[in-house]
Specification:
102 residues; alpha+beta; 38% strand
């Protein structure tokens, strides 16, 4: 089972820690309608990053009405990213080094 923790990094901003590793951040935001000036309810937006041999892959920003909801969606997407794209890029890198391409 995964352990998700938060480390405060600013006002309404937290770092997401998954199993002891920092993977991204979650921030509380509000949107304002420029025509009417109406301020909408706050929304939490979370995004994670996964490093690979060719750089960094980022998840699509996930929105939620609570911090936990936004983080849950981001962690799910982060795991899919790590299981798919990052594994493939690591395999390409390993094959390239083994064949002397770089």
């Amino acid at each position: 089972m995964d352990t998700i923790a938060f480390r405060r990094s600013g006002v309404d901003r937290y770092t997401i820690v998954l199993n002891g590793n920092e993977i991204g951040s979650v921030t509380k935001t509000r949107s304002v309608d420029l025509l009417t000036g109406a301020v909408r309810r706050p929304v939490w937006v979370a995004q994670a990053k996964a490093t690979h041999p060719f750089g960094v892959a980022e998840t699509i920003p996930a929105r939620g009405s609570s911090r936990g909801e936004a983080v849950w969606r981001t962690v799910r997407e982060y795991k899919a990213l790590c299981a798919g794209e990052v594994v493939e890029l690591c395999d390409i890198h390993r094959t390239g080094r083994a064949n002397g391409w770089w």
